[in-house]
Amino acid sequence: MEKHCRLLIVQMCVAVVMFAMVSFNVSYCQAAQWEKVAESTEQTVEIDASSVEWVEYPELGRNIVCWYKYIEKDKSSNVYHCAFRETNGAPEYAIFEKISFDGEGNQIDHQGTSTPDNSVYRPVVPGSDGEQFFQIAKRYAK
C-alpha cells in the first residue's frame, strides 16, 4: 500500500511539472495573428495583433512594440519589428529588425537586432502612413 501511494505521488508530481512546462512554453510560442490594416494595388500591410505590447526599456522609456508585414504582389514580403513611443508629446518610431521572405515563404535576409536603439528612432510625420500605423498599434496594445 505504501509503495502504491509513493508511486501515485511521484506520478502526480511528474504530471504537474509537465503541465507547467507545456503551459509556460505555450505563452511564448503563440502563432502570429496577422490582420490587414492597409492595402494598395502594389502591396498589403498587416499587423501581427498577437505581438503588440507595451514594453518598458530602461534607456528608451515605454514603447508599443509590434510586427508589421508588407506583402508584395509577387507574394514576397518584409516583416518589420517596430517600436513606437512619445517623447515630449511627439510620437516617434523605430524599425529595429527586418526579415525578408521570397514569394514561397523562404527567409532570404535578416537585418537588425531584437531590441531598439535610441539612434534608430525617427519622428512620426503627421498625416503619414507612419502615423496611421502608430494609431493602429495603440489600439492593439495590451
Quick overview of this protein structure:
The chain is an alpha+beta fold.
Number of domains: 2
Sequence of secondary-structure elements:
HEEEEEEEEH
Give the number of DSSP strands: 8
Outline, from the CA principal axes? globular
Please summarize the sheet with the most strands.
Answer: 8 strands, antiparallel
Terminal residue distance = 51 Å
Salient structural properties:
single chain, 142 residues, alpha+beta, eight-stranded antiparallel sheet, 2 helices, 8 strands, globular
Folded structure, characterized:
The chain is α+β, with helices and mostly antiparallel strands. It folds into 2 domains: 1-30; 34-140, no CATH class. The protein is built from 2 helices and 8 strands. It has helices at 2-28, 129-140, and strands at residues 34-39, 43-48, 53-57, 61-72, 77-87, 90-101, 107-112, 121-123. Strands 1, 2, 3, 4, 5, 6, 7 and 8 form an 8-stranded antiparallel sheet that branches. The longest helix has 27 residues, at 2-28. The chain is globular. The model is unreliable at 12-28 (pLDDT under 50).
